[in-house]
TrEMBL record:
One of its GO terms (cellular component) is nucleus. Belongs to the rtf2 family. It holds the Pfam family Rtf2. SUPFAM superfamilies: RING/U-box. The lineage of its organism: Eukaryota, Fungi, Dikarya, Ascomycota, Pezizomycotina. This is Rtf2 RING-finger-domain-containing protein. Residues 210-239 have a biased composition (Basic and acidic residues). CDD domains: RING-like_Rtf2. Residues 1-24, 73-98, 208-258 are annotated as: Disordered. One of its GO terms (biological process) is DNA replication termination.
């Protein structure tokens, strides 16, 4: 304008418009990307999943069996490893850090080993996919999948809803409708159902795999021992449970004391005094 080499800013450079909310398609794309990561990577270490040895907890998260086994092994730097091994993707697709302590896995009874079916689509030589044994749909972020407890076979949710009998189509093991676990659930209602199921199992002393929770037995034994020790302590305070001295051993000086604990202590003090008097008398005779 003045031949000074400057420039006149435009209006769009000066006036910034407010940020736009993401569209529905953008939200779906983000959720699909997060779900794809959760289907292909370990929820703890973000390492690629090996579906031949993948396990799942009650929330439907996926882990490599070796990862869970390594975390359960005692080690000096286990706390440091728990803080370092985090991942941005969780079971419900949210971006949150996850450490082993927050999973609630305390033993291998808290996870179920999943059994996927390999399938080669016709006309695609050399390509294998993980598919539902009933519908042959490819299992992954595009298909809502579930697995059965305790057998661990994986199916498409639509296929399980169509069968009438509560028997696993693969191994014929019986199951209940509550033990159909969603893999990587995204709906809040699914998470609430799984949480309610787990509360019922804990109340019954069972783990996610429907096996007995040994930690509950240990807690119960500790509580019983604490109660028993409390009762013994109360008895000691009240003077109960103490062995009463025989009539021949009771000194005539304490025969009038009714409280056994007081009588025992008094007799002990008197016996010590008598022993001291005898020692002094023997010393004087010498």
């Amino acid at each position: 304008m003045g031949n000074d080499g400057g420039s006149i800013p435009k209006r769009r450079e000066l006036v910034k418009s407010p940020p736009r909310n993401p569209t529905v398609s953008q939200l779906k794309a983000t959720a699909l990307e997060s779900l794809t990561h959760a289907w292909t990577h370990d929820a703890l270490t973000s390492e690629p999943l090996t579906l031949e040895s993948v396990v799942s907890d009650w929330r439907g998260r996926l882990y490599n069996y070796e990862t869970v086994l390594e975390k359960l092994m005692p080690s000096d730097d286990s706390n440091n490893n728990d803080d370092d091994n985090t991942t941005p993707a969780t079971a419900n697709g949210e971006s949150k850090e996850l450490n082993f302590a927050s999973t609630g896995i305390k033993s291998l009874r808290d996870v179920v080993k999943l059994k996927f079916k390999r399938y080669s689509p016709p006309g695609e030589k050399g390509r294998e996919i993980w598919a539902c044994p009933l519908s042959l749909k490819e299992l992954g972020p595009a298909t809502k999948a579930v697995y059965l407890v305790p057998c661990g076979h994986v199916f498409a949710e639509v296929s399980i809803k169509t069968i009438q009998e509560e028997l696993c189509p693969e191994c014929s093991e019986s199951f209940e409708s509550d033990n159909v676990i969603d893999i990587l659930p995204t709906e809040q209602s699914d998470m609430e159902r799984l949480s309610k199921r787990m509360d019922g199992l804990v109340a019954s002393g069972l783990t996610h795999s429907l096996r007995k929770d040994k930690s509950q037995g240990k807690k119960k034994r500790k509580a019983d021992d604490a109660k028993q020790e409390g009762r013994k302590s109360e008895k000691r305070k009240n003077g109960e449970g103490l062995a009463k001295p025989s009539k021949g051993a009771i000194d005539s000086r304490v025969s009038g004391i009714n409280n056994p604990m007081t009588a025992s202590l008094t007799a002990k003090v008197l016996a010590e005094q008598d022993a001291a008097n005898k020692r002094r008398k023997l010393a004087a005779d010498r």
